[in-house]
Amino acid sequence: MVFTGAPEDVIVPALHRLVDAFGRWAADLPADPFVVEVLLEHRWSEGDGLLCRWPPSDLRAALCDWFPRKVTMAPDEWPAVVPTVHAFVDFLFAAGLADARCATAADLHAGLDALAGDFAEAMGDESRYGPAKFWSMRMLAAGVDLEDETATARYIAEVRSGRITVDQQLLDRMTANHLAADQQPPPRLPLVAVPDDSTLAELASRSVAVGRVRGFVAWVGDGRPLTATGRLRLADARELITRLDLPDEIDPVLGGRAWRTPSSDELYDLSIVFAWARAARVVRVVKGRLLPVKSAAKLVADPLALAHRMVDAFAGLGAAVAMPGSETLVRWRFGEAMGAVLLPLYLTQRPLARAEIAQLTWDLLEDGAEAEPWWRDAHDGDLAGMLEQLAVFGVVELDRKNARLTPLGTGLLAAQLRREGADVPTVASLLDETAEVVVAYAADAPAPLRRELLDNWVRHHPETGPAELRALAGRTDDRTHRKLALRIVGDR
Question: Rounded to the nearest 5°, which phi and psi values hold at 289?
């Protein structure tokens, strides 16, 4: 009953088994198993995948939003929907499938009674439909067989030719409602080892990038003048290069020739520190002077708090990190590229080839299009610059071929994902969960983390834990979960 993040080839047969079981249980009731199948698909695709745990709010979201937008049903089938869900609630409790954190049957039935009128109204409101459902319902009303490709193509051709008219205002409302509602849910995240705050604080204090930004703010002091064009003065840049131990060089000698540095904008690493400090809102420019943000003084004094601010600010550094003159989409969609780099590293918790990361970002930003070699080289060059700065930050570790997320990177990204509304499972957050949820997460975790989670969970539930694991082993049809539950109980 726990399918958080399960792939389609796992959830589909499981749904079939559950819907079939419901169909047998409700054989003498006026219930439609299709309704239950759609309800469960919604809980997997849009919710948390906990088919055993239902609050009234999730039933309302499914019936008054998902069904109107996505589910194509003839109007004479609508009256069976809410009674079928009533029957499904009774089935969950009768079969012992509702878990300990599911709302009571009485609360779920009361919630269904309260939403029945809203459901009927929403199902009849065409402006609530998604585009695919809108046209499917129009064709059904016109007597078109949706399985007949020739008939459906003929209907669409009639619409495009203007021989079948549709209220444009209705179409506009439908499209606006669909775009507003059809947001992707936060990513489903695996259990990972997230360092505690004291460990993260120590790691942040050793971050080169954090140290540079702190040193930059200390150098700013009460304020520093900028040039007329808002740049750091070259004399100040020379001091900062030494003070912050930057690899930049003013007036470098290359190939036996001295090259004059015309402005501090030519100093790549210093420009990034300057841009990062501004993006993190720890310094600001006022009337030609660079000033500290006084309200950020506590933040700057706390390396971990500053690191959290800096990881959020990093998404805005495209213009500073991209190579001069570069106009790649890495530069202009730097935040998206950052996500394409960090999220796969978080989800896999293993090193990824830098070539694989480059392909992921290319596919995201350029939609996998073919490109001239020079354009792809420019993309990969700007991505390499991003990776190098993340390594300076201490968020990733690089070698010639691979990149991996560091413990600091894991902790900072986990916190950022939480701020964006994602559920970030950790050993501590799962201690109060049910046995089935814990075993489901443990089964997909690396062996040491799996053992840590299960050992801590059993210690947290000394009286009820072993019995819950035995009960799970007796009812689950997942062999891996059964073996894992029995092995943990056997170790006790």
Answer: -120, 145
**Alpha-carbon distance 63 to 113, whole Å?**
12
| Cβ 252 vs Cβ 338: under 8 Å | no
Greatest pairwise CA separation for the chain in angstroms: 92
pLDDT tens track, the chain, 492 positions: 887 767 777 888 888 889 999 999 998 888 889 999 989 988 887 777 888 889 999 999 889 888 888 888 888 888 999 999 999 999 999 988 888 888 899 999 999 999 998 998 888 887 777 777 777 777 887 788 888 888 888 888 877 877 877 777 777 777 776 666 666 666 678 888 899 999 999 999 999 999 999 999 999 999 999 999 999 999 999 999 999 999 989 888 777 787 888 888 889 999 999 999 999 999 999 999 999 999 999 999 999 999 999 999 999 999 999 987 778 888 899 999 999 999 999 988 899 999 999 988 888 888 766 667 888 888 889 999 999 999 999 999 999 999 999 999 999 999 999 988 888 998 988 998 888 889 888 888 888 898 999 889 989 998 888 888 888 888 887 888 888 888 887 755
Question: What is the four-CA torsion angle of 350, 356, 357, 362, rounded to 10 degrees?
Answer: -160
| pTM, entire model | 0.73
Which uninterrupted H or E stretch holds 405? strand 402-405
For 393-431, give one letter per residue: b (16+ CB within 10 A) or e: bbbbbeeeebbebbbbbbbbbbbbbeeeeeebbbbeebe
Number of H helices, E strands in the chain: 26, 8
Beta bridge partners of 404: 397
For residue 409, CA distances in Å to 188, 247, 355, 392, 402 come to: 18, 23, 20, 12, 15
SS3 294: helix
The rounded distance, in Å, linking the Cα atoms of 455 and 439 is 11
Task: For the chain, report the end-to-end CA distance as a whole number of angstroms.
Answer: 25
Instruction: Give the CA count within 13 Å in the CB-facing half-sphere of 420.
Output: 16
Q: What is the DSSP string of 427-464?
A: HHHHTTS-HHHHHHHHHTS-HHHHHHHHHHHHHHSTTT
Helix (H) or strand (E) holding 479: helix 479-490
Collapsing DSSP to helix, strand or coil, 191 comes out as coil
Please provide the size of the chain in residues: 492
Alpha-carbon distance of 135 to 143, in angstroms, equals 12
Helices (H), 247-350: 268-279, 297-301, 303-313, 318-321, 329-332, 334-348
Q: What is the four-CA torsion angle of 442, 446, 449, 453, rounded to 10 degrees?
A: 10
* DSSP type of residue 92: H
Residue 286's Cβ-count burial label (10 Å; 0-12, 13-18, 19+) is exposed
